[in-house]
Structure formats: C-alpha cells, structure tokens
Write a structure and sequence with these properties.
6-stranded mixed β-sheet, 328 residues, D-Maltodextrin-Binding Protein, domain 2, alpha/beta, 5-stranded mixed β-sheet, 13 helices
Length: 328
C-alpha cells in the first residue's frame, strides 16, 4: 500500500492540475522552451546508456532544444523510475524504459511508484535480440546438441547473468523450461564480468547482447549457437534462432523506449512521439542501431502502453514458473 502522505501528495497534484488546465494547454503549444532531460537507470557506457545518447543527440534538432542524459543507476532502475514518476508532468523529464521496468513489479513487493499509473508511455525505440553463447569447450555445435548434453548431465552446465530478473537470467530460465533441462545460475555484478567468465570457461553459457561479445566471438573465445528472437539477427544472418533450432515458440528480446510522468499533456506526448519516430527511423540511425545489435521499432503511445502491459504479464508468468519470490 502507498503511504497516506503519498496519497495526499497525488491528490494535491490532481487538484492543481485541474486548476491549471489552461496553463498546461499553453505549455503544450509552446513546448519545448528549455532543455529536455532523459533519465537512464544505468551507469554510463552500457547498451541502454549508449542508445539513450544516440537518440538524445538526434532529438535536439526536431525539438529545437538540447536533450541531455542523466544517469541514475541503482535498485534495478527503480531509482530512475521513481525520479521520473514523481517529476512535474511538463515533458521536460523523460525516462528511458526497458525490459527491467516490467520485471520489477514481480520481483519487488513494494515499489515507490506504480508503473502503469505514474508513467505515461511515449514510444518504443528499439528491440535487441540476444545471442546464446557457449564456451568452446562445450561439446555442442548447435542448440539440439546443447539440449541433449544438458539433459544427459542435469545441473552440471552453468549459465551467467547480471542478476535475478535481468534479461540474461530470464532468457536462460525460459530456455530451461522449454528445453526441459536444468542449468545452474551464476550471477555477476555486470555484463563485463559475465563475459570474462564465459571466455575463461568459468561458466558454460551466457545469453548476451551482441556488441559486447563480438570481439570475443570473432577471436574464437566463445561460440554462438542461436539468437533469441523469432527472426534471425541481421548482423548474424548465419546464426539460427532458438525457435527454428528445436524450441518452437521461443521468443525473447530486450527492448527500450521512452516514458514520461503521468499527466503530461497529450499534445506534448504526441510531439515527443513524432520526434522520436522521425529520428529513429532514418537510414543513418538504423545503421547505427544495427551496429549495436539493435533494430529500430517505434509505435504510438497507445500501442506502447499495450506492449508494456503484455511484458508485465509475460514476465510475471515466467517469474512465477521459475519460483522467484518477490522481495521488499
């Protein structure tokens, strides 16, 4: 339950919003008149941060104002999420949302915000299939051989992740469920540590985004068996999908988009949505995204809201199946 003080706060916000509707209309017509901030729940340098900076740089032109990045890492992005959820609904503080935001409601019994009530979807930006990678010592040349190996040695193979509820963790557990195998979870503090662990043979497999692993893949220190989306990755056309390699129906991707505080005028949401669609779907941006292992995918605010609802429900089912209990 939300604390009484927070209920009073949001009641006051609603009253003030009603009183100032004409003011909000004026703000929407003139928007933007000052720099816009995009809050990222990860440290600089990661794939989400890189994407946010790519988009921010391009958005400055159609919006006519600088778009800057504010990194607020911690608590599996909950700190950044709350920062934006409690910001003024004026369109000047936005949030880079991704897979983790739809996992948190199932992992944390208490969150200082409500995802669907306190944040307004603006647009999806990009999706990024992951790659199932194994250490060269693993005697499997394809997914079917890996499944057969795992079934013959229950609990012997291990996989890395960057924590419970992270995309690599959920993708590996979905693999375990669909393949009817048992591989052991080994969490690491970050993707770099997990990558080193795989390359050195400390773990046997790892679901990872492609860019961070490409040097190791090209050097032969890891090998790719399949990609997690239902269609092949354009940058790895020869690598089959899990769906076509023996696990029909397997489809799991990482994704990112932009959200705003609830209550931002629809005209501002529409302006932001149009600007994002314009910059993300250019040939230049598509090429840049593909180099990062991502593919552009934008939609309307309404479609993005439906997408987020589906992701919340899908992740809740998976988390329940793998037996992870919600913490505080």
């Amino acid at each position: 339950m939300r604390k009484p003080g927070r209920k009073i706060f949001w009641l006051c916000v609603g009253i003030v919003a009603c009183i100032n509707l004409p003011v909000f209309d004026s703000l929407a017509q003139n928007y933007p008149v000052k720099p816009i901030r995009i809050v990222v729940g990860f440290s600089p340098g990661g794939i989400t941060d890189v994407l946010a900076r790519m988009v921010a740089q391009k958005l400055s032109e159609p919006l006519g104002q600088p778009v800057v990045i504010e990194n607020r890492p911690g608590a599996s992005t909950a700190i950044a999420n709350e920062r934006v959820a409690t910001s003024p609904p004026d369109g000047y503080t936005l949030l880079m949302v991704g897979t983790s935001v739809t996992v948190l409601p199932s992992l944390r019994a208490k969150l200082p915000y409500d995802l669907e009530r306190d944040l307004a979807p603006v647009s999806l930006i990009a999706v990024s299939p992951f790659v199932l990678l194994v250490h060269p010592s693993v005697p499997a040349r394809n997914l079917k051989q890996l499944i057969a190996l795992a079934r013959s040695q229950p609990g012997k193979l291990s996989y890395g992740s960057v924590g419970v509820g992270s995309p690599p963790n959920l993708m590996a557990e979905l693999f375990n469920l669909m393949a009817k195998v048992k591989t052991v979870h080994v969490p690491y503090k970050g993707g770099a540590e997990a990558a080193v662990a795989l390359a050195s043979g400390q773990i046997d497999l790892y679901f990872s985004s492609l860019p961070s692993m490409l040097p190791l893949l090209e050097a032969g220190r890891v090998k790719s068996l399949a990609v997690t989306s239902v269609k092949r990755l354009s940058t790895l056309p020869s690598v089959p999908t899990l769906d076509e390699s023996g696990l029909p129906g397997y489809d799991s991707i990482n994704w990112n988009g932009v959200a705003a505080p609830a209550g931002v005028p629809k005209a501002i949401i529409g302006r932001l949505n149009a600007a994002i669609g314009k910059v993300v779907n250019t040939a230049e941006m598509k090429e840049s995204l593909n180099k990062q292992g991502m593919e552009p995918q934008t939609n309307t605010p309404e479609q993005f809201a439906v997408f987020i609802r589906g992701e919340i429900e899908k992740n809740a089912r998976l988390i329940k199946l793998i037996g992870v209990k919600a913490g505080e």
